[in-house]
Amino acid sequence: MESAVQRDWTLRPQKSNKQEAARTCISDRSSRDYVGGFERPRPAHLSRQHVEFLPRRPRQVPPLVTVSVRSSSPYAESNFSSISVDEVKTPSRIFHKAQYEQAGTYASCVELDDLESGSLSSNNDEKGSYCEQPEARRSLVPTEIYAEKIATKEELQALQNLFPLPPVRGSPSRNRFRYKYLSCYRELMVLVFAINIAAIIPMIICLRQNDRSFTYENAATATGANLLAAVMMRQEHVINTLFHLVCALPNGTPLWIRRQAAKAAYSQGGIHSAAGLSAMVWYILYIALLVRDFTGTHGEQTAIWILTSFTMFLFTILTAMANPPFRRTFHNVWELSHRFSGWTAIALIWAQLLLTTTSTAHQNDQPIMIILLLTPTFWLQTLTTILLLYPWIRLRRLPITAHNLSSHATELRFPNRKLKPCAGITLSHNPLLENHKFATIARPTPTGPQNRGFSVLVSNAGDWTQRLIASPPTHIWVRGGPITGMLRIASLFIPLVLVATGSGIGPCLSFLNTRRKRHSPCRIIWSARSPEETYGRGILEDVLRADRDAVIVDTRRSGHPDLVGLAFASVRSMRAEAVVVVSNPRVTKEVVFQLEVRGVPAFGAIFDS
User: Fold this and answer.
1) pLDDT tens-digit profile of 150-202?
2) Lowest mean pLDDT among 5-14, 149-158, 300-309, 475-484
3) 118-150 burial string, b = 16+ CB within 10 Å, else e?
4) Third-level CATH fold of 490-604
5) Whether pLDDT at 229 is above 90
6) Which of 21, 137, 182, 502 is deepest in the core (most CB within 10 A)?
């Protein structure tokens, strides 16, 4: 039979002499009834029920010092139970629930097997640990409605009135140039362009003076170096290393250094774009020098002109379709063109390299392999090809469990796979045609193989996600390894304000589930349409567990809030060092811009891929 224990928690003032207090409180009880100065309560009543009701302290109560049982009924007075008092001990998860949860009465399901086997006892805390077990966390079902946790219009306005949004400093044109056009992404682009221009100018001067010291081999080397840099900035291990180096900065580092380093960590796409454009410019010079210097047979010259013309056409397609407006409007077309045109261009460059090397070997009467190994372009192309093939070597089809949260969102769970926080993965039904990147929610400190895993929160944002929610699969393709996401830089700033809209709360939970609350205070601002109905009570519980004073906005009831005003007021109220925004491109750019022009460090995704 299933059983349950009803307990009552009260406060007792702390005594000055801790040893004397311990002797008085413990008396004939064993020392295992005390943890960190707290006394676990004794059973007050036993009955044949399957639910355990746990009264908890209101948040206004001072920190718990010493806990005692206000009424402890002897076991003889219980006429409804067949188990002894000694067989029922207070597990750590009950202790943690009473200490950390909000005020209210909760129902926590207790399994019969657990009671009979004694797995809920205090000497087996790992199984029932509230702080470490996401399953135990999800089994917590409140009997009260979360309506009071949703902020009203009046509450939102009152928060903004405490710290009104100040006027923007400087002229609008200067602010747009400084914080929009001259972003860290474009600063990295300018840096890469400057390096390439410094190398191109001497070559152009030599060409005008008919100096043959620069050859098409030099231009081919520069083209290969830029292509390698462009591919490296999209390689998962390179990106993860950049984030690891940046996040290794101590929190005592000056704020302006951490701010610039954080921006550079997730703006590496600027190097990718600039290196790709520079490779195209170098390739044009390569063609010009090839026309002047290449002296192969008629067949070799015909073949080299066909190869170079087709490669130049592919470079033009890649550059034109990578234009941001076109990429946003025709994302699937851009993805296909970028993948297949890029692969084809690399293959054509390999063909040109082999053709020119063969021609040079025949003219100089040398082995082809010797000349090839002494050519820098060969090694650059080899590294580029390996980096392109690497994600596809790790392509795998993984089992998933889909949990429909609503008609608008679903949660994909990947069991038995450990993943670091703030990481993203690439999912697909057909990897060659369509791939989608999603942030993951890592489970905090798994204690066993059955508790390992991570999940992905998917909301309806297009045809692909709509089909996934309507007909969730049992398996899905995952390409490459996990890639550290922008939210990883949030650990650099303490305190911190997180602003999320819709399913953007998913990446935030990946960060919040693994942070240390005491050492990294954080304020959450989450705006979503019917958050409890859309994303489920479990997600709402996770948010409130991470920040019990979280600002949760139901846009169906309160309309779209002033996220800039709420974020600024939260920064001032808790003296936060920075704001991290996880939302759609329009909201992210606007909130980041409005905060930065007011002197608040703000960070948001780039959306360049």
Assistant:
1) 888 888 999 999 999 998 888 888 888 888 888 899 999 999 999 999 999 98
2) 5-14
3) eebbbebbebbbbbbbbebbeebebeeeeeebb
4) Rossmann fold (3.40.50)
5) yes
6) 502
- Bigger pLDDT: 338 vs 207: 338
Q: Which has more pLDDT, 120 or 147?
A: 147
Q: Is 427 helix (H, G, I), strand (E, B) or coil?
A: strand
Strands 66-68 and 10-12: antiparallel
How far apart, in Å, do the first and last CA atoms of the chain sit? 57
CB burial of residue 396 (10 Å; 0-12, 13-18, 19+): exposed
H or E stretch at 551: strand 551-554
**Close Cβ partners of 503 (under 8 Å, ≥ 6 residues apart):** 409, 457, 458, 459, 461, 535
The values of phi and psi at residue 64, to 5°, are -70, 125
4, 2, 1, 11: which is closest to 107 by C-alpha? Answer: 4
Neighbours of 20 (CB within 10 A): 10
Q: Could you give the CA distance from residue 550 to residue 517 in angstroms, rounded to a whole number?
A: 14
Q: Region 336-349: what's the mean pLDDT?
A: 93
DSSP letter for 180, please.
I
**For 485-494, how does the pLDDT look when each residue is reduced to its tens digit (9 = 90+)?**
899 999 999 9
- The CATH number of the structural domain formed by 396-484 is 2.40.30.10
> Which residue ranges make up each domain of the chain?
4-144, 183-233+268-388, 396-484, 490-604
β-bridge pairing 423-430 and 434-442: antiparallel
Two structure tokens written together for 188:
């990295």
**Exposure class string for 573-584: b at 16+ Cβ within 10 A, else e:** eeebbbbbbbbe
- Helix (H) and strand (E) counts in the chain: 23, 22
How are the residues of the chain apportioned to helix, strand and coil, as percentages rounded to the nearest 5? 55, 15, 30
Q: pLDDT band at residue 519, thresholds of 50, 70 and 90? A: low
Locate tokens 């190097």: which residue? 271
Instruction: Pick left, alpha or beta for residue 404 (phi over 0 → left; psi -120 to 50 → alpha; otherwise beta).
Output: beta
Neighbouring CB atoms inside 10 A of 68's CB total 15
Closest CA to 92 of 35, 30, 139, 22: 35
Q: Rounded to whole angstroms, what are the CA distances from 431 to 239, 401, 460?
A: 21, 20, 20
Give the residue, 45 or 437, on which the prediction is more confident.
437
pLDDT at res. 46: 36
Distance CA 534, CA 551 (A): 17
Say if CB 57 and CB 9 are below 8 A apart: yes
The rounded distance, in Å, linking the Cα atoms of 222 and 228 is 10
d(CA 337, CA 316): 11
C-alpha distances out from residue 279 to 58, 59, 274, 324, 601, Å: 63, 60, 9, 19, 34
Residue in this structure with the two tokens 């369509």, named with its chain if needed: 434
CA distance 67 to 429: 55
* DSSP letter assigned to residue 53: E
